[in-house]
Amino acid sequence: MAAFPDIPKIRYEGPDSKNPLAFRFYNEDEIVEGKTMKEQLRFSVAYWHTMRGTGSDPFGAPTMLRPWEGAQDTVDNAIRRVRVFFEFCEKLGAPFFCFHDRDIAPEGSTLAETNRNLDAVVKVVKEEMQRTGVRLLWGTANLFSHPRYVHGAATSCNADVFAYAAAQVKKALEITKELDGAGYVFWGGREGYTTLWNTDMKRELDHLARFLHMAVEYAKEIGFKGQFYIEPKPKEPTKHQYDFDAAACINFLRTYGLAPYFKLNIETNHATLAGHNVEHELEYAGMQGFLGSVDANTGDLLLGWDTDQFPTDIYLTTKIMLVFLKYGGLAPGGVNFDAKVRRESFEPIDLFYAHIGGMDTFAKGLKIAAQIRADGELDRLLKERYSSWDTGIGAEIEAGKHDFKSLEKYMLEKGEAAPNRSGRQELIENIVNRYILPR
Ligand code: XLS
Ligand code: NI
Ligand code: NI
Predict the structure, then answer these.
(1) Which residues are registered as beta bridge partners of 43?
(2) Is the CB of 338 under 6 A from ligand 1?
(3) Which of 78, 128, 307, 347 is the most exposed place for a label (fewest CB within 10 A)?
(4) Is the pLDDT of residue 1 over 80?
(5) What is the per-residue pLDDT across 115-167, written as a single tens digit (0 to 9) for each?
(6) Which of 32, 30, 28, 31 shows the shortest CA–CA distance to 42?
(7) Residue 298 CA to ligand 2 centre (angstroms)
(8) Are 109 and 121 in contact (CB under 8 A)?
(9) Atom of ligand 1 nearest to the CA of 267
(10) Cα torsion at 410, 414, 415, 420 (round to 10°)?
């Protein structure tokens, strides 16, 4: 039985459409910068929010109406949910999905039983992937919900918990490979701490590095070729998450010899929690070759936590797509909606409205970014701003022809530096608005 019988396949109807169950900008076959929108954006639905989000918060009970859910979370129930999920992705036209191991199958009373549950559900996931053509963007393991992970997983003070986590990631890598995943994500979960009085930070980070090396080695052993990602986040659930931001992650990866094996999965709201914006994080990763994938969502300026709202801000998506186009596109990463409907939006149809809005906002952002790049006006202004480096003393410094002594001589002769030129921020903002608000 269909879970969304009244919802048609979502189609592109163009900017004038007022149909809330249609795309106004996401036209999957339309070519932008040489690729279809489908290839450029690689949209992915997050299993955890879409299928497992209950709407509960610290003050209240679940609110989501999900008529396909049984009273008990049995394997049968989990399998029924998988079928609903793929019906959703198919109707939406999302080419990818992402999941944690514990999202798709219930935990048993031993690791062996849990793995059996997982195998039973993965079989159906595979069937549904074949039926619908929906592919796996990345898999991951939930190493934070179960009470055993109270002190972290790879950074736990309890060596047995490290071992359990290793066994869990081993299995998660196997199923990600089985489902032909394009990637595998490590988000830090509870890898961090609250107080240094009880924390040996150096030892914990050494353990985390050892853990990730084991993952790299095991991936090689089983022939998993997907891209590994670290997903930075500065806080929540712990006060000091080790993977604070792109800079901290890249430093960690280089320090421990992991840099060749990892890229970053940048999440919008994690960037803002770190006191950055997402384009800073993407650019910082991109310029050093660590740009991987994006967890697309947005926070709320007035709320200082990971609210995981769907992105509807055209400036935000334009900025994100400008960085990705600059660095050659998203593949093998994608735009994964790590986003959930609000607690008050509890009907199944709200899941469609939310994803349609996010996809349309990204599609429009992609088109605007491509137009900005094609016209080249912003690039020209940027180039002009640094033109003192293209000839004369600037070019000589860049070419390594100077030292402090020669530069002192140059300035003693010249007496004073050439005058500065205006940064033109307001002009540039007005130019960007010409693209965002053409009429
Ligand atoms: C939590 C993270 C999480 C990862 C996957 O804040 O965003 O959802 O994306 O473990
Ligand atoms: Ni995320
Ligand atoms: Ni998050």
Answers:
(1) 335
(2) yes
(3) 347
(4) no
(5) 999 999 999 999 999 999 999 999 999 999 999 999 999 999 999 999 999 99
(6) 28
(7) 11
(8) no
(9) 7
(10) -100
